Amino acid sequence: MSRQLIRRWSGAAAASPSVASRPLGLALGLTEPLARAISPQGGMVRRLMSLSTDPGDPALFLSLAAPADPKAFGGRQHGLIDRFASGMGFTLQEANVSAVAEAVERYCAAYVMPDRTVFASWSELRAEALHPRELPLYTPEQHAAWQFPYQPFTEQARIRWVPAVSLATGREKLVPAAIAWDSYVPQSDDEAAICFGLMTGSAAGSTLEQAMIGGLLEIVERDAFMMMWYNMASLPRLDIRDHPLARPFRELLDESRFELSIVDTTGDTGIPSSFGLLRTNDGRVSFGGSARLSMEEAVVKTLMEISQLFIGNKAQIYAEGLPSLLPHQITDYGLRLPYYEQPFAHEELAFTAASPLLRPVPPAPAVASASEAERLAYLVEALQARGLEPLCVDVTTDDVRELGLHVVKMIVPGTIQLPRSERERLIASRRIYDVPVELGWRSSPIAPSELNVSPHPFP
């Protein structure tokens, strides 16, 4: 999902879409709980807007919602990482529902609740808590670097812990609060800082199962993508040109304007995932990725993500005088899109679409249309088969719970994470090195010094 969308108001340059504020009473198609979440005074979502598209864009709808910022509530709240949540759909109703649901997710994922935590070291908690070796974060070399901002996660490190439920065993397990909220910072001066939150795995849903499925699929997508990215693996592309799923996105297949590549990034879990790269003929780029229970669904979602980033960020993509950025200057998610709009940086994306292999999109398996409970069980089993334990932290705030909505942070220790800053790359997981060999991407594990040094592109 796009992490940095630029507002374009009516009266902006003709080449850019405009944003039109929509009265709250006309928030079309919202369910009652989502409609009740919106209020400029005290709502979890302060505003809902829609963006108009330009001629030649895919015939889609894009909406933006502004979540409330927990930083305003005091305490040690870092607050929102993004000011806007976005949603895209084939109808305005779908776009509105998606945007407001994501805004509710962002609100809960940034609202740290210290009263739900326990302050202790692992050595004090022992069997009740996730062991530090189960959560690989940074390497000893990173910790030894000058002014590295985080402390090693050890058995003696005193941190805050929050309850999670293991979907493998059904039992409660305490996990570091630093990985349960997207923008967690230590809540007291004596708390060890082990990382700055993890942006992957947060999801909202009208049911708990729906939210858990969404969070797990995001983890699978990011894990597969970062494995490809760090190893600079050129994976088989998918042939979508004549597939019915591409029809709503036919504008992106116009070779006089674009070059579109969709790559099969499915990893060792077997859960379908894809990455897409869109290159315009005037030298701009957009990208997206997804994991779903069928490759058809993953590709559609990837095309939606590409369209969302391109349509929603034209003001930035086509801006003049963008600052010149080098990899070490990428210290936040919002700097990644400007980095890759620099012509020299396009070469760093080229390997993702370089494979000569072209595969058809496989048909959907039966589980893709199964019940929520069956789909969740399938995901849990697929992860367990690879020695991965899915954990669920309920981060639903009381006001969101009153609306009947659920927000979770799914955690699968050992999976590969998107780093916020290039100095904070989480490269201690053995999956980065061992799984590509199992999959036949490499003949031997890559050395840490050989990992792709280019910033990942996801904003």
List keywords for this structure.
459 residues; Double Stranded RNA Binding Domain; four-stranded antiparallel sheet; 17% strand; YcaO-like_dom; TOMM biosynthesis cyclodehydratase (Protein C); TOMM_cyclo_SagD
Would you summarize the structure shown here?
This protein is of the alpha+beta class and 459 residues long.
What do you see in this structure?
Strands 5, 6, 7, 8, 14 and 15 form a 6-stranded antiparallel β-sheet that branches. Strands 1-2-3-4 form a 4-stranded antiparallel β-sheet. A 3-stranded antiparallel β-sheet has the order 10-11-12, with helices on both faces. The protein is globular, with a radius of gyration of 21 Å. Mean pLDDT is 90; it is low at 1-27. It has helices at 32-36, 92-110, 122-125, 140-144, 208-231, 295-312, 314-317, 336-340, 343-346, 372-384, 398-402, 431-438, and strands at residues 19-21, 45-51, 61-67, 85-89, 118-120, 159-166, 172-176, 202-205, 237-239, 258-264, 273-280, 285-291, 358-360, 391-394, 406-411. It contains 12 helices and 15 strands. Helix content is 25%, strand content 17%. A hairpin with an 8-residue loop joins β10 and β11. The chain is of the alpha+beta class and 459 residues long. The chain folds into 3 domains: 26-110, 2-Layer Sandwich (Double Stranded RNA Binding Domain); 114-216 and 389-439, Herpes Virus-1 (2-Layer Sandwich), CATH 3.30.40; 218-367, 2-Layer Sandwich (Double Stranded RNA Binding Domain). It holds the Pfam family YcaO. This is TOMM biosynthesis cyclodehydratase (Protein C). Residues 87-459 form the YcaO domain. InterPro entries: TOMM_cyclo_SagD, YcaO-like_dom. It comes from Paenibacillus pasadenensis.
